[in-house]
Amino acid sequence: MTAFPPGSTIGILGGGQLGRMLALAAARLGLKVHVFAPEADSPAFDVAARHIRAAYDDRDALADFARSIDVATYEFENIPLTTVELLSQHVPVRPGAKALACAQDRLNEKILARELGAGTADFADIASREALLAALDNGFPVPCVLKTRRFGYDGKGQVKILARADAAAAWDAIGGQPAILESFVGFDIEVSIVAARGVDGEFRAFDLTENEHRNHILHRSLAPARIGPDTSAHAIDIARRIAANLDYVGVFAIEFFAMPPGNSDSILVNEIAPRVHNSGHWTMDGAETCQFEQHIRAVAGWPLGSTGRKAPAVEMLNLIGDDIHAWPKIAAEPGAHFHHYGKREARPGRKMGHVNRLLGPQSG
Ligand code: AMP
Is the pTM of this model over 0.70? Predict the structure, then answer.
């Protein structure tokens, strides 16, 4: 395996907090990071050796970026596919365009999950208002959720349909874009897996994580998730198969719905994220290798690190908007591991930081 040794430069497309934490992890391994992002106040710019501020379709800026790096990655999935394809002509981009194309589209993700034997919510491809009405007329169960196939996050681009009469308004609410209709799942808890696949196909998963959302934004994660060993093994197996199928290199996450006892599937795949993930932030202080280092290792062609957990349980709390103003109290708390993303303005719903706590044996 050819690895990029310390001193090499990794290019990161996207300048948010995930890019920032990737850059910090890379620095620890002696690797340099160049960040490419359009926004002036990108949190990753502060900690990168170099940054290029340009639009993702700026070909000259991308060519300049490509010349200055050895290998590229990205920190969010809404990077245009053409940007990744263009960069790939000059440097390896990990994960590659195939993985990005799949994970940018909720319909493709679900089709792949089913092909590989994983359960998902029932779904239908909805290309028009008429298709939505037809699906409901043909017995698609309500309640259900209409989601844009692309560009949705934190509950944006999705709307619940309680009855056929809601359909037209739902179609308008998502902006009349290509969509997927999903049956509404009566899940027990939401869990996710964060795992990595190396250049040579090596696969390693962190413990499954249990996730609690508030206002569609992740509020709290707990590792390990309170699910049985068979369910956990099943999730790991699904993750391994999906990663192999996509020729994946790097860290990724799969969000699952864990079902109550008595369902034919113990877990259903909800979403695949082709990047480091908020539900893996606990690994920064609670695992032998954190997800950011693991991603950098994979992208640089290094051996993957151990995913062992350092405490009986680990909790991560997101600091959203004004939550960040509690930083003096958190900073003074023994054993609290505080992470601030360096964003100046605490807008409502904005992820400003998080705090990790290692817990003893516990009931949650
Ligand atoms: P997503 O953007 O797909 O991760 O959805 C955001 C949140 O909405 C999920 O974390 C769930 O809490 C909820 N949700 C999404 N899809 C469904 C579904 N098919 N059934 C029930 N809840 C859902």
Answer: yes
